[in-house]
Amino acid sequence: xxxxxxxxxxxxxxxxxxxxxxxxxxxxxxxxxxxxxxxxxxxxxxxxxxxxxxxxxxxxxxxxxxxxxxxxxxxxxxxxxxxxxxxxxxxxxxxxxxxxxxxxxxxxxxxxxxxxxxxxxxxxxxxxxxxxxxxxxxxxx
Length: 141
Description:
The chain is 80% helix and 0% strand.
């Protein structure tokens, strides 16, 4: 256990809340994808093939890392900072990969609702990924 100031405790409660929300968001996205998007005949095989490659890394690495980070931060254990770095780097990687695909394959020029969803997911990944990495690094050292 660490002796944290009240400001650190406040930050250490906000960051895990965001991590939990993003983790739940990932789970929700994949439920939505397999219930609707995966069955939509308007979606190209290229898009579906690309998206179908993501559930394993998202649900078996990123989401557990987010939840482990959040738990560690909430109970004031150092591994919370470490897993914040891990989850942040995974978010950044996935976000950049998705942006690259969307730019090359018109992911931002499709239906307005799809473009908004793609952009939202990408921004969450490339904004919170570095935030979690920096936060974890500064707190860990």
